[in-house]
Design brief:
single chain; three-stranded antiparallel sheet; 16 helices; 5% strand; globular
Length: 428
């Protein structure tokens, strides 16, 4: 029990004492659960000031640009671990030992294939369908193929579902791409690591041996890691909301994919490329920057600033380094869109308008450039985000089940018509 109390004074009512709790770090929280018994709700559109759950997975300090996964800074993880280690960390709470990592990696590798019948699903989609539309469908459909272990109360079943989803997401993503361009699906290989396997399935063909550049594989691995989790964002909250109903894990992850698809969330890096194409040439930048500064102009520069981070996005620092490595390897420094991006980055770091408003380049600004230079079509950008975010979604799904969380049931402030009677149709 908390010894600290907040006292709420409401006219015409006795004072209401509300417990104050402290987490291991970050802001304290006021427990408002008893307000409903007093006939009161709190009003917090978008839940920007509401802790919807207790979690031990990820901590963000937006003011100081800090992102911790289970206590480890994202910069430290990016420098000294890999994506599958981070997956294990998010799900299990600690970094794996060498033996644990070997076992976990083997479990992922052994689950990369999908049921052969699932391939027939793709024929039901138009070739020009957005890959995220297909991903929503096929990920949700996995429950019809892997219904042998869907007891959410069984920890072994949950672990098996986690292995299956982390393993199969790159396979399904690559299938979406191959289907869109009319090429045959490429099967995963057990001798490749996670990122290598994905690039092999994306860009390989049956007629030639895949030659995966280690620099690109490391970049892909790091990109997945940087997107692995980000606390209670829209898609993660959606997964937790669906999971609180007892829905199966495949349905929950499909719901996260649907939420991620929104341009204000996972679609932000796609919006960055659209913006760069709209600007068109370096000579047009000043005019577009002026439009961005004009509060009466609807134009906004995409990829700058962040809802949570009021300082530099810590993921962007790592992503920028990765971006430089990839672009140097591929020799595309003179790409017109890249030149526009570099100039915008320089302006954002030097112009007082951007500095005062802390509009620094975020992770979406750099990731889109990397994806494009590696040959990913714009429509695949959000799919790549979904692959990376899957372990975070699953960690939160597992956590809420372990904590036996109640079904989520937000309340509202009703502003519609009060009760009224239905008049006869002749009187309407």
């Amino acid at each position: 029990m908390s010894d600290r109390k907040a006292t709420l004074h409401v006219e015409g009512m006795d004072p209401i004492e509300l417990p104050i709790y402290s987490g291991s770090t970050g802001p304290d929280v006021i427990d408002v659960r008893q307000l409903v018994s007093k006939g009161l709700f709190t009003y917090d559109p978008g839940f920007v000031s509401t802790a919807s759950c207790e979690s031990k997975i990820t901590y963000i300090d937006g003011d100081n640009g800090i992102l911790l996964h289970r206590g480890y800074a994202i910069e430290d993880l990016a420098a000294n671990s890999n994506y599958l280690e981070t997956c294990y960390l998010l799900v299990h709470g600690d970094l794996p030992s060498a033996e644990q990592l070997q076992e976990f990696t083997a479990n992922i590798t052994n689950n990369t294939m999908v049921h052969e019948q699932l391939m027939h699903f793709f024929n039901g989609f138009r070739r020009d369908a957005h890959p995220m539309a297909i991903m929503c469908g096929v990920v949700g459909a996995l429950s019809s193929f892997y219904h042998d272990k869907l007891d959410n109360s069984n920890s072994d079943h949950r672990e098996k579902a986690i292995h299956r989803l982390i393993a199969k997401m790159p396979t399904l993503a690559a299938m979406c791409y191959k289907y869109s361009i009319g090429q045959p699906f490429i099967y995963p290989r057990d001798d490749l690591n996670y990122a290598e396997n994905f690039l092999h399935m994306m860009f390989g063909t049956p007629t030639a041996e895949s030659n995966i550049d280690p620099v690109l594989a490391r970049a892909m691995d790091k990109i997945f890691m940087l997107h692995a989790d980000h606390e209670q964002n829209a898609s993660t909250s959606t997964v937790r909301l669906a999971g609180s109903s007892g829905a199966n894990p495949f349905a929950c992850i499909a719901s996260g994919i649907a939420a991620l698809w929104g341009p204000a969330h996972g679609g932000a890096n796609e919006a960055v490329l659209d913006m760069l194409e709209e600007i068109g040439d370096v000579s047009n930048i000043d005019a577009f920057v002026a439009k961005a500064k004009d509060k009466n102009d609807p134009f906004r520069l995409m990829g700058f600033g962040h809802r949570v981070y009021k300082n530099f996005d810590p993921r962007a620092t790592v992503m920028r380094e990765t971006c430089d490595e990839v672009l140097e390897l591929l020799g595309v420094e003179n790409d017109p869109l890249l030149q526009i991006a570099k100039r915008l980055e320089q302006i954002a770091l030097e112009d007082e308008y951007f500095i005062q408003r802390k509009l620094y380049p975020n992770v979406d600004f750099y990731s889109g450039l990397i994806y494009q230079s590696m040959g990913f079509p714009v429509e695949m950008f959000t799919v790549l985000f979904a692959i990376g975010r899957t372990p975070g979604w699953l960690a939160h799904w597992d956590e809420l089940l372990v904590n036996k969380s109640r079904i989520a049931r937000p309340r509202q402030t009703y502003s519609g018509k009060p009760e009224r009677t239905v008049p006869h149709i002749d009187q309407r």
